[in-house]
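User: Reviewer 2 asked us to show a designed sequence for the structure in our supplementary figure. I'm pasting the structure tokens here. Could you produce the per-position amino acids so we can include them in the response letter?
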């Protein structure tokens, strides 16, 4: 089961806002894909939240784009920022990337974002959103959302 960003935001607006703010605080993030042999590959990436979708844009024939074409599973880690404070917590998104080949959809994205041409564009289907943060300097709190389920909150000392 997977979900769009809009469906996630409607189901869990507070967590969605926090996650979007964390990704919006910095330009560059880390995308994990799977190589041909199944081993992980991490790459830098910029992401966009537009029109109820989380978009991944990348250079033509980049290794991450080729990875996603072969196996659409990904993990996306928000940039933690400077130092160790990680205001808002650590955020991660897992899911599948679906390549957008429709010229009109790519043109609409290009008009909004103005990426260098040509480019690969993927919309995401979320399978998990996770936020981890420290509460009261005592608890490590992890919030986990999966499609069709409420957010689970785990606390440990």
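Assistant: Here is a per-position design you can include in the supplement:
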């Amino acid at each position: 089961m997977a979900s769009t960003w809009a469906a996630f935001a409607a189901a869990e607006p507070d967590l969605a806002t926090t996650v979007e703010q964390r990704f919006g605080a910095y330009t560059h993030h880390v995308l994990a894909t799977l190589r041909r042999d199944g081993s992980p590959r991490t790459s830098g990436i910029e992401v966009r939240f537009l029109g109820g979708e989380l978009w991944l844009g990348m250079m033509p024939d980049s290794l991450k784009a080729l990875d996603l074409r072969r196996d659409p599973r990904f993990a996306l880690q928000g940039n933690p920022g400077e130092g160790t404070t990680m205001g808002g917590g650590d955020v991660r998104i897992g899911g599948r990337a679906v390549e957008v080949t429709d010229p009109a959809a790519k043109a609409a994205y290009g008009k909004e974002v103005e990426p260098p041409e040509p480019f690969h564009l993927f919309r995401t289907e979320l399978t998990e959103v996770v936020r981890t943060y420290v509460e009261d300097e005592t608890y490590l709190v992890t919030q986990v959302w999966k499609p069709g389920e409420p957010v689970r909150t785990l606390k440990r000392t």
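For the response letter, you might also mention the following. The mean pLDDT is 94. DSSP finds four helices and nine strands in the chain.
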